[in-house]
C-alpha cells in the first residue's frame, strides 16, 4: 500500500473527486497542503480575500452543478470564509472549504492563528470536520464531497491540523468510502402521491411555485413536461429563475416581494399551489396569515425539515423533485385551463402600462433600462451574476432567462459583495460562457480587490456597475418606511473607471441611454474584461414592492405614469 | 407540550454540541438532556425532553436526521415507555429530625447513601413526579443541595427495539494500519 502525507492524500482525494480548480489563499497552517499541491494537476486561483475564494467556489458550483472548492489557512483565513459558507448554506450550494489548523498538540492553547473554526462554522455548514490525523484525511474528504452534493446540497468544511498534513500514512481510497447516512428508509408516500394527483386534477386555478431545487435536481425537462401537460402557470422564486423558460407561455415570472403584480395576485387567487423545490421564504410569502388563503398546497422538497416549516401544506412529498415529477407525470390528467390563464393575462394589462421599460427616454438613465438593454445586446444568452439590492431585483425583472444556471445570485443570505467573486468562479467553470457581473456601487466596493484576481488570471468578465450613489435598496426602505431619512445610505465612490485602469482593465462611464447598447457591444467585442460604470438615476425605486410582513397582494405599485415621480424632479 | 426523543448518535467529539446547537438555532427549547453509552460500542444515546407543540415534532425529527452523526431518532412521547430520573438530595438532618426523614425516605423507596452529623445524602430513582414529591416533603427539613440527572427513557416491549445500530468502524482501518506502521510492520508499497 502507498504511504503518503496527509497533504498528498488531500490532493489525491480532490483529484479523484473530479476537482481541477481550487480558489484560495495560502498561510502558515495550510503550507504543507500548498506545497503538496504542486505535485497534482490542480489550477489554483489566488484570490485577494478568503471570502472571495468561498464565493468563487460557490459561483463555480452554481454555474455547473459541480462541487466548488476553496482553501485557506487557519485563524483569520478560516473566519474570512464564514460569510461565504453561510451564503452557500442558505442557497444549498455544494462547496467544500478546506482550512489549515494549528498543530494538533497546540489546539486549545490559543496558539498563533488558532480559531475553533469547526465551532464557528457549525451553524453555517451542512457538516464540518476537524481532522487531527493523516489517516482521517481521506475519509473526511470523501464524505465531505458526498455530503456536499447529495440530498439537499450544501457547504462542508474540513479543518486539517498542520501535523495531519505533514505526517505520513497509508492511503487507501476504497477504505475511505463515505458511509450512507440519514433517515433509515423513505417513509411510505403512496397516499401522498394519490392525494397530490387528486388535488392537481381537481384544481381550476393552480399555480406552480418553481424553486432552486428544480435546478439543483436537474429536473427542468420533467418540470416543463409537467407544466405543459397540466397547463399550470409557473411562478418562480428568485433562485428558481432559469428552471423554466422565461419566454414560455405558461411563465408568469418572479413571485414575492418584488414580483410582478399579476404573479402575486395569481398566487393569492389560486385554488392550488404546487411548490416544487422551494421553501416558502418570507420574501416570497409576505404575511403568512393571509398567504394564498383559498389554495390547497402541495409541497415537494428533498429536505423533510422544510415540509410544514413556514406554510402548513395539505400534501408534503419528500423526495428528489425530478423523481417525484417523473412519477406524477404519467399519472396526471392533461389540463385545460383557458379560463384561469385568461384571467391572469387580463391582470397583466394594467402592469404593462406601468412597466418602466415602456416609458420614453426622458434623458435620465434608469437602471431598469440598462438591464433591459443589456438583455437585448447579449441576446439573453449571458450568465448574469448579480450582487444584492435594487439592481438584483431589476435584473430579475428585466433580464428574462431561458436556461438554468444563467442567473447566479445570493438569495437566502443576501450577501453584498457576492457578485464579482462569484462571477470569477462561474467564468473559470465555464470559460466559453459570456459572464456579466451586475453589481451596485455599494456591493462592488465590498469585494472590488478581486479585480486583481481577474487581471492575474487573464479572465474575460464584463462588469456592469449600477452606480446610483446610494445603498439603493436600503435607501428605498428609508424612503417608504422611515420618512426619507437617509441614515448612512448616501455613498461616495471612487472613479470606477480609474480603479479599473489601475488593474489594467478598461472602463467606460455611461450616463445616457443611447450610450448603453454601444458600450455593451464594445465590452462584448473586446474579448477582455471591461468595466461599465452606469451612472443611473439616484433615487430610483424597485416596484412593485410588498412591504415586509404585508399580504402578498398588498403591493406598492409602480406610479403611473412614472414621469410624474421624483425621478424627473 | 413535553415531548421526549431518544436519539442515537455516533460517540464522537462535538456531537453533543451539534445536537444542542441545532435545537437552539431552530428555536426549540430543551427541558432536559441526558447522554450516555449504549449496548453498541461507538454509539451514544441521548434522551431529550423538549417543550414543543405537536406540529413541530416531525420537523425536530427531520432536523436531527440532517446531522451526519445522528444515527436514529425515536419520538417516544406517545409510546408506552419507562421514564426515570435520578436525584441526589442533601438534606439537613440532626439527631432530632433524622428518624422522621428516614421514615419519609422509606416511604419513597429512596435510600441514604451518606450520613454526617448535620446532613444526609438521599438517592432516589423514579419518575420526575415521584422525585418532586420527595423533594417537597424534604423541603421543610432544609434541602441543602440537589443534583438530578434529567430524564432517561426507554420504550416498553420488544416492538420498539432498535435494529442493530451500525457504529462507524470504518475509520479504524486506517488507524490500525497506522499502529502497524508504528510497530514496524512493513507494507509493500
The fold-level CATH name of the largest domain in chain B is Alpha-Beta Plaits
Number of helices of chain A: 23
Give the terminus-to-terminus CA distance of chain A: 77 Å
Q: What is the CATH C-level name of the largest domain in chain B?
A: Alpha Beta
List keywords for this structure.
heterodimer; A: 569 residues; alpha/beta; Rossmann fold; 6-stranded parallel β-sheet; 20 strands; globular; disordered C terminus; B: 189 residues; alpha+beta; Alpha-Beta Plaits; 30% helix; elongated
Describe this entry's structure for a reader.
The complex is a heterodimer of chains A (569) and B (189). Chain A is α/β, with parallel strands linked by helices and 569 residues long. Chain A has three domains: 3-176, Thiamin diphosphate (ThDP)-binding fold, Pyr/PP domains (Rossmann fold), CATH 3.40.50; 190-345, Rossmann fold (3-Layer(aba) Sandwich), CATH 3.40.50.1220; 365-536, Rossmann fold (3-Layer(aba) Sandwich), CATH 3.40.50. In chain A, 37% of the residues lie in helices and 16% in strands. Chain A is built from 23 helices and 20 strands. In chain A, the strands form four sheets. A six-stranded parallel β-sheet of chain A has the order 3-2-4-5-7-6, sandwiched between helices. The model of chain A is unreliable at 563-569 (pLDDT under 50). The longest helix of chain B is centred in the middle third of the chain and has 13 residues, at 95-107. Chain B starts with a strand and ends in a 7-residue tail after the last helix. Chain B has helices at 15-25, 57-65, 95-107, 128-138, 171-182; strands spanning 2-10, 29-37, 43-51, 70-75, 81-92, 111-116, 119-126, 143-148, 152-155. Chain B is built from five helices and nine strands; from the N terminus they run βαββαββαββαββα. Chain B is elongated. In chain B, strands 5, 6, 7, 8 and 9 form a five-stranded antiparallel β-sheet that branches. In chain B, strands 2-3-1-4 form a four-stranded antiparallel β-sheet, covered by helices on one side. Chain B has 189 residues and is of the alpha+beta class. Chain B folds into two domains: 2-79, ACT domain (Alpha-Beta Plaits, 2-Layer Sandwich), CATH 3.30.70.260; 82-148, Alpha-Beta Plaits. The chains are: A alpha/beta (569), B alpha+beta (189). Chain A binds chain B through residues 1-3, 118-119, 122-123, 126-127, 130, 133, 135-136, 138-139, 143, 147, 169-170, 172, 175-177, 179, 181-184, 303-305, 307-309, 312, and chain B through 13-14, 17-18, 21, 25, 55, 58-59, 62-63, 65-68, 72, 168, 170-171, 173-175, 177-178, 181, 187-189.
Amino acid at each position: 500500500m502507498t504511504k503518503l502525507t496527509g497533504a498528498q492524500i488531500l490532493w489525491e482525494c480532490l483529484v479523484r473527486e473530479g476537482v481541477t480548480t481550487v480558489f484560495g489563499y495560502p498561510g502558515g497552517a495550510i503550507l504543507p497542503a500548498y506545497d503538496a499541491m504542486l505535485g497534482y494537476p490542480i489550477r489554483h486561483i489566488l484570490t485577494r480575500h478568503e471570502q472571495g475564494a468561498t464565493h468563487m467556489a460557490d459561483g463555480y458550483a452554481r454555474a455547473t452543478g459541480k462541487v466548488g472548492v476553496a482553501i485557506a489557512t487557519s485563524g483569520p483565513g478560516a473566519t474570512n470564509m464564514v460569510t461565504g459558507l453561510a451564503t452557500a448554506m442558505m442557497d444549498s450550494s455544494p462547496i467544500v472549504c478546506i482550512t489549515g489548523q494549528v498543530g494538533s498538540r497546540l489546539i486549545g492553547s490559543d496558539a498563533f492563528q488558532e480559531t475553533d473554526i469547526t465551532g464557528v462554522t457549525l451553524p453555517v455548514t451542512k457538516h464540518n470536520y476537524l481532522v487531527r490525523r493523516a489517516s482521517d484525511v481521506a475519509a473526511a474528504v470523501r464524505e465531505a464531497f458526498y455530503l456536499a452534493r447529495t440530498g439537499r446540497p450544501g457547504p462542508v468544511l474540513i479543518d486539517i491540523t498542520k501535523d495531519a498534513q505533514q505526517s505520513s500514512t497509508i492511503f487507501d481510497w476504497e477504505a475511505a468510502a463515505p458511509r450512507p447516512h440519514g433517515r433509515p428508509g423513505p417513509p411510505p408516500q403512496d397516499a401522498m402521491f394519490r392525494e397530490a394527483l387528486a388535488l392537481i386534477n381537481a384544481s381550476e386555478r393552480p399555480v406552480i411555485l418553481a424553486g432552486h431545487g428544480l435546478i439543483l435536481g436537474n429536473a427542468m425537462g420533467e418540470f416543463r413536461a409537467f407544466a405543459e401537460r397540466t397547463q399550470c402557470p409557473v411562478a418562480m422564486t428568485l433562485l428558481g429563475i432559469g428552471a423554466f423558460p422565461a419566454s414560455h407561455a405558461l411563465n408568469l415570472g418572479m413571485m414575492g416581494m418584488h414580483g410582478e403584480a399579476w404573479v402575486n395576485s395569481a398566487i393569492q387567487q389560486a385554488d392550488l399551489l404546487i411548490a416544487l423545490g422551494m421553501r416558502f421564504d418570507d420574501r416570497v410569502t409576505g404575511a403568512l396569515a393571509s398567504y394564498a388563503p383559498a389554495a390547497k398546497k402541495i409541497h415537494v422538497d428533498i429536505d423533510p425539515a422544510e415540509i410544514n416549516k413556514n406554510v402548513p401544506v395539505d400534501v408534503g412529498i419528500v423526495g428528489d423533485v425530478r423523481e417525484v415529477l417523473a412519477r406524477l407525470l404519467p399519472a396526471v390528467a392533461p389540463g385545460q385551463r383557458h379560463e384561469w390563464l385568461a384571467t391572469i393575462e387580463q391582470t397583466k394589462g394594467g402592469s404593462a402600462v406601468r412597466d418602466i421599460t415602456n416609458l420614453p427616454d426622458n434623458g435620465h438613465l434608469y437602471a431598469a433600462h440598462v438591464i433591459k438593454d443589456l438583455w437585448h445586446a447579449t441576446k439573453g444568452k449571458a450568465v448574469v451574476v448579480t450582487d444584492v439590492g435594487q439592481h438584483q431585483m431589476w435584473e430579475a425583472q428585466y433580464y428574462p432567462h431561458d436556461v438554468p444556471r444563467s442567473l447566479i445570485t445570493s438569495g437566502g443570505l443576501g450577501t453584498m459583495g457576492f457578485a464579482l467573486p462569484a462571477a470569477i468562479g462561474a467564468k473559470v467553470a465555464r470559460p466559453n460562457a459570456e459572464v456579466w457581473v451586475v453589481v451596485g456601487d455599494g456591493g462592488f466596493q465590498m469585494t472590488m480587490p478581486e479585480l486583481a484576481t481577474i487581471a492575474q488570471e487573464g479572465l474575460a468578465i464584463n462588469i456592469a456597475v449600477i452606480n446610483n450613489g446610494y445603498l439603493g435598496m436600503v435607501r428605498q426602505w428609508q424612503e417608504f418606511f422611515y420618512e426619507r431619512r437617509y441614515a448612512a445610505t448616501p455613498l461616495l465612490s471612487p472613479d470606477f473607471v480609474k480603479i479599473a485602469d489601475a488593474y489594467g482593465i478598461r472602463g467606460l462611464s455611461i450616463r445616457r441611454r443611447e450610450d448603453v447598447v454601444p458600450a455593451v457591444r464594445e465590452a462584448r467585442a473586446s474579448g477582455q474584461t471591461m468595466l461599465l460604470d452606469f451612472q443611473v438615476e439616484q433615487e430610483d425605486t424597485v416596484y412593485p414592492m410588498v412591504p415586509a410582513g404585508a399580504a402578498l397582494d398588498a403591493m406598492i405599485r409602480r406610479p403611473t405614469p412614472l414621469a410624474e415621480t421624483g425621478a424627473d424632479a | 407540550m413535553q415531548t421526549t426523543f431518544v436519539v442515537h448518535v455516533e460517540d464522537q467529539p462535538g456531537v453533543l454540541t451539534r445536537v444542542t446547537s441545532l435545537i437552539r438555532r431552530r428555536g426549540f427549547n430543551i427541558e432536559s438532556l441526558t447522554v450516555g453509552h449504549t449496548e453498541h460500542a461507538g454509539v451514544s444515546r441521548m434522551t431529550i425532553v423538549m417543550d414543543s407543540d405537536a406540529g413541530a415534532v416531525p420537523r425536530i425529527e427531520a432536523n436531527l436526521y440532517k446531522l451526519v452523526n445522528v444515527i436514529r431518532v425515536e419520538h417516544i412521547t406517545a409510546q408506552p415507555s419507562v421514564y426515570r430520573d435520578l436525584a441526589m438530595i442533601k438534606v439537613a438532618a440532626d439527631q432530632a429530625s433524622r428518624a422522621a426523614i428516614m421514615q419519609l425516605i422509606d416511604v419513597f423507596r429512596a435510600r441514604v447513601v451518606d450520613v454526617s452529623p448535620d446532613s444526609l445524602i438521599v438517592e432516589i430513582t423514579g419518575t420526575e413526579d415521584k422525585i418532586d414529591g420527595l423533594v417537597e416533603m424534604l423541603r421543610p427539613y432544609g434541602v441543602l443541595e440537589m443534583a438530578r440527572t434529567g430524564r432517561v427513557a426507554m420504550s416498553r416491549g420488544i416492538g420498539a427495539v432498535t435494529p442493530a445500530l451500525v457504529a462507524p468502524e470504518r475509520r479504524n482501518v486506517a488507524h490500525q494500519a497506522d499502529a502497524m506502521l508504528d510497530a514496524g510492520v512493513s507494507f509493500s508499497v
